[in-house]
Structures are given as C-alpha cells and as structure tokens.
Write a structure and sequence with these properties.
Elements: H1 6-25, H2 30-52, H3 54-82
Length: 83
Amino acid sequence: MPKITGSTIVKLVIACFLVGLVLVWLNLQPKDVLIQGWYWVKSLAEWLMENLGSAMSYILLGAVVVLPIWLIFYLLRAVRGRK
C-alpha cells in the first residue's frame, strides 16, 4: 500500500477546501450531496436490475462471497509486503 505523506495530506486539504468552496457557491449542503449520491446509486442499481435482470442478481450474490475473500488476501499480501 502506498504511504501517506505530508504532501499528500496537504493536497487533500487543499482539494477539500476547493470542493467546499464550489459546494457553497452552488448552495449545497453535505447532507444534500450525500442524499443525492445515495439516490443516484439506488437508481443505478434499480436500472441495472431492470435491464440486466437475473445476471445482475447472480453478480451481486457472488460478490457477497468473493469480495470479502479477495479483500482478506489483498490485505494479507500488503502486510507481508511491508515486512
């Protein structure tokens, strides 16, 4: 895993500040952004289920098993790589 350096933190703070300025300029609150983001994800999932039908449900069902296993192996490799 990449290291988080001081310059990375400074860049993130600057990016957060600039995005915050844009959101204030657009008169948006963090709650509004989160609600709209959740609505978009929910709409996308519904659209995918409607248009891809059972294939999407098979993918989601498989992801419940495959992704946690993959994450465990990924983290184990990352820990071994640091030693």
